[in-house]
Amino acid sequence: WRTNYNIQIIYDTYSGYYFMLKPDGSKVYFMNPTEGYNDLGVYVYSSIAEDGSGMILNREINDPYEMYVETDSDIVYRFNQYGRLYLITNTQTSDTIQIYYIDTTSYKINYVIDEAGNRIMFYYLYDMLWKTELQLLQADSTYRGIERRYYYYDSYDNISYINYDYRYGTDITTWSTDPA
Fold it and tell me: What confidence category does residue 2 fall into, taking pLDDT thresholds of 50, 70 and 90?
């Protein structure tokens, strides 16, 4: 199971170029590397996306594990030393989304959190995504779940249906199910 947050930057040893592996399995290669100082005065290698999107991959020379992709729409995607996406920033609004993984080796997301502290939790049963839950940060620093999705699979591990539950308003115990 992959979400829109499952984006990776990978080095292709055959071609010698980096590429972005997107959630749908497609690849965007970054070509024509140049080097120089960025707007913050940091010396970087920069490469442009070959798909015409205008995305720029930057790798800091002094910190080879710091990689980020800038888009024409003022969104910056930051990747960790394993090439996994860990931060999305809108440079116009300073809004952020942080992505946390279960561990350093798997690509399973543990939770995603926004700048307000609200989060989406990911729960797995064996190797399959079982449930996601949108939780809002409360004034007392606790979380209140307001939306849940349960994922059901066929015998080939394809999603057969998703059950959607919600609890809006003041009732803190009762979940309602969206009729399919």
Answer: low
